[in-house]
Amino acid sequence: MDFNLTRQQEMLRDAVHEFADAELAPRALELDEKGEFPFDIVKRTAEIGLVGIMTPKEYGGTEMGHLARMIAIEEISRVYPPLGFFFQTGHLGHWSLQTYGTEEQKRKYLPPLCKGEMVICDAITEPSGGSDPTTTQTTAELAGNEFIINGRKVYITLAGVADLACVLAKTDDKFNEILVEKGTPGFEITRRESIAGFRTTPVNEIAFTDCRVPKSNLIGQEGKGLGIGLSAISVIGRTGVAGIGLGIARGCYEAALKFAKERKLYGKPIGELQAIQFALVDMNVEIEAIKWLSYYAAWQIDQGKGIREIGVDIARAKLLGCDLANKVAPKAVQIMGGYGLSEEYHVVRRLRDALHLFPAAGTQEIMKVTIGRSIMA
């Protein structure tokens, strides 16, 4: 394994870093205060190739791969994590379409998605829980050339702004992933959840009442929907969370380091105090260690390895990336004292966002179950 980034990946990292500092940082507080989905920023990221970063060029993407995607999510989340969460979640549907969709589905939906003209969400979680999708109660009854969908989905990120939903539903005793377009009769967004972080990324409930969609909206083979949904969560969702966790940790660390160099106590910068310096060292070392573990997981996907081979590596990345963000953010608050709790310094905002990573793409406990099964096999 060669951990050196390619020239293209280095250029991407630098370009996204510059974009985040120039276009996201000045608007971060305003965006959070308004809590409105930033359509203009999503369009801008589409223009520079980030929305379609892993999508083949023939469908409007830039085809840079999964490691490039993680680097981009990390750099964006360093400054504004809710936008990183848009990529973490929105790419679930992109990946399902480009991996399992028909040629007609790909040509119809992927180009506008890559341009930021459409938004897609993944609708799996139900009131019974998200960790075990086999308990799905939403049904898709096949009637001729149509599916009739009935049921309810909860905690669906982006549903309130999505033009298209990938819906996991049960047909008899099998599961299907079905595309449902916004405006389809019987498809209703019923509420927006009030959550602690990611204020510009809406999380909603969806209700389906005799919602009829063409059978041609089926993604992949009939009865294979559960595998498609779980693969998307593993390959896309969990690597995305790892990237966001890295970004949040880096943003907090950089803010704390800058503060420690500038804030003076006892006649010298507090960064020269051993207790503060050791805390910064711990943050620095953990970020670097988990960065390469996470990059390795994404790199393996680019090498064509399947989820059965690398699912454990991805679970490790999600587990530690989430923990990292939730360790570094509070440490940054401690180093900065009262300033750390001020919205102006952006650390407490990142701390709120970090909390949302615990349940995203599978809880920490589910990651441990995945890893545990592997080491006991």
Architecture overview:
The protein is an alpha+beta fold and about 375 residues long. The protein has three domains: about 5-115, Acyl-CoA dehydrogenase/oxidase, N-terminal domain (Butyryl-Coa Dehydrogenase, subunit A, domain 1, Orthogonal Bundle); about 120-225, Butyryl-CoA Dehydrogenase, subunit A, domain 2 (Beta Barrel); about 225-375, Up-down Bundle (Butyryl-CoA Dehydrogenase, subunit A, domain 3). It contains eleven helices and ten strands. The chain has helices at about 5-25, 30-35, 40-45, 65-80, 80-100, 105-115, 225-260, 275-300, 305-335, 345-355, 365-375; strands at about 120-125, 140-145, 145-155, 165-170, 175-180, 185-190, 205-215, 220, 265, 270. A four-stranded mixed sheet has the order 1-4-5-8. It has a four-stranded antiparallel sheet with strand order 2-3-7-6, covered by helices on one side. β9 and β10 (about 270) form a beta hairpin. α7 (about 225-260) packs parallel to α9 (about 305-335). It is globular, with a radius of gyration of 21 Å.
Instruction: Just name the CATH architecture of the largest domain.
Output: Up-down Bundle
Largest sheet: 4 strands, mixed
The number of helices is 11
User: What letter string, H or E per element, gives the SSE order?
Assistant: HHHHHHEEEEEEEEHEEHHHH
Stretches with pLDDT under 50, minimum 5 residues: none
Write out key terms for the chains shown.
Butyryl-CoA Dehydrogenase, subunit A, domain 2, 377 residues, four-stranded antiparallel beta sheet, single chain, Butyryl-CoA Dehydrogenase, subunit A, domain 3, Butyryl-Coa Dehydrogenase, subunit A, domain 1, four-stranded mixed beta sheet
